[in-house]
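Submission sheet (multi-component)
Chains listed below:
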Amino acid sequence: MALTLSLPRLREPSVLPGFWPALGFTVAYLSLIVLIPLAALIARPWEHGLADFWRTVTDSRVLAALRLSFGAAFIASLVNLVMGLITAWALVRYDFPGRRLLDAMVDVPFALPTAVAGIALATLYAPNGWIGALLAPLGVKVAYTPLGVLVALIAVGLPFIVRSVQPVLQDLDAEIEEAALTLGAGRWRRIRTVVLPAVAPALVTGFSLAFARAVGEYGSVIFIAGNMPLRSEIAPLLIVIKLSQFDYAGAAAVGLAMLVLSFAALLVINIGQALLLRRGR
Amino acid sequence: MTETKLNFNRRGLIAAAAGGAAALAAPAVLRGAAQAAAGPITLLNVSYDPTRELYKAINAAFIRYWKSRTGQDLVINQSHGGSGAQARSVIDGLEADVVTLALAYDIDAIADRGLITPNWQSRLPDNSTPYTSTIVFLVRKGNPQHIRDWGDLIKPGVQVITANPKTSGGARWNLLAAYSWALKQPGGNANTAKAYIANLYKHVPVLDSGSRGSTTTFAERGIGDVLLAWENEAYLSQAEFPGKFDIVFPSISVLAEPPVAVVDKNVDKHGTRAVSEAYLNFLYSPLAQDIIAQNHYRARNGQTIAKYEANFPKLQLTSVDADFGGWRKAQATFFADGGLFDQIYKPS
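Outcome: structure written.
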């Protein structure tokens, strides 16, 4: 996306009318919803000076929280990349009883209030919960560990991958695969050379959506994370903690650090996607 | 776990933005008119986590009292959450008429922003704290880990549940109670007390953001051997899960004084000063003191104390003002960024 931006021209040489209202609406709307809040965030951390900002964001606790938030979001999105693709594949390519129901259920994490998802997961994965009780004898602790953070992020991220990939898979003619089959391509080769290239851009889109959502996720995580400093404390929680101490500048500093990191990560992903698309052509 | 907050101001703003310039003044005018006319007066009490049940009972009693005295109908809305977070909501524009928080520091923070007059704590009797409480241990039935006092909490294998003192007022009282015990041990000084606190928090597997969250973790998720709890929370959990928990009273604890204040800026704006002040004064009345004692908070009124004496074991209690130099000092020493609580979590 970022690569294809040309120099801004104010008068679009389009035959379609409505350029000015459309531009006015877009700028006004984006300003209200995105730009002004972002500007407020960027303006806030500096009230105690640059040194103080730097001290805040390089504090070992903040660094540990950022590492956990971004690391867990990345791993969770990778897991979802594989599992989401398989899920989408199964939902598109096979017909089985209850398929439509399952299809609808993929969206549940979208619709559920995140706190509800978090409490449900904590209840299930606590050592006395249904799943936690099965894992406890194996020495696996999920709730109140960094693993719990991962589980919550996987849960909220799954629909992004499935819903991004599904329409592309639907449009992908089965005949192309059949043709590949008649030409002697094995099962793995058909997936690698026919299916994956077609869905790759959609996979990247889904990945970046799931990743972005997971980085900022708060509600579902805090109930299952344990929230121990340096271990299972996510960056958004640190922001909330700083706010409860009336440390607005510190909270904004962590927020800004997250913003910069997210922006960098999404930029890399978008560049990767642009390269993929170019190769696909 | 903040409950739905009624933010009239913000809601008004959204309505104004959506409705355009013509509607700009309407919500404010309507609200002012509604308050002045015969309709019910609305009060918002912004409180901390464990007081839901207490204020539900108090509010019902005060609404009856106010109706019989003035004939006015009253609606009292409650909002609960971690004490610090609640204070911040008020600073950020939640239009509380009264705040009833876990510790004086959080009300000081509101006063520092000019919403409450600086001398607020001397406006009502007993440092504006109509009741006190303390910190006790809630252990699993039969006390399998034999936890009798603070020293037992750092025995190998014991897991302690408490909330994050950065966000929870109750958790700050927990830490101060533990610290004052360590200080009073033979040979105790600031270094040994700090070492004890560091050791204690190594036994804490989960830090929830509010005391209610810790209670849930301990009681419903079954995590930990002992919950450091408000005295009233401990009784509440016992009542809710009969036969599952025992309460242990440590040798030393802290005298927790959760204060109350009228938010001057907001009551003057709403025209609710008289009723708000009456509401807080009502907390000191024998009727309210009785409700307070029934909800397992320690009453101030001598007669009520005598009546419920059996329910409240006498403990050696340290006070923040006498032993820690007041909340502002305690906050800076223990809980501010870089304070004792942060120091014990530095990677070594």
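Remark: Confidence is low (pLDDT under 50) at residues 1-5 of chain A.
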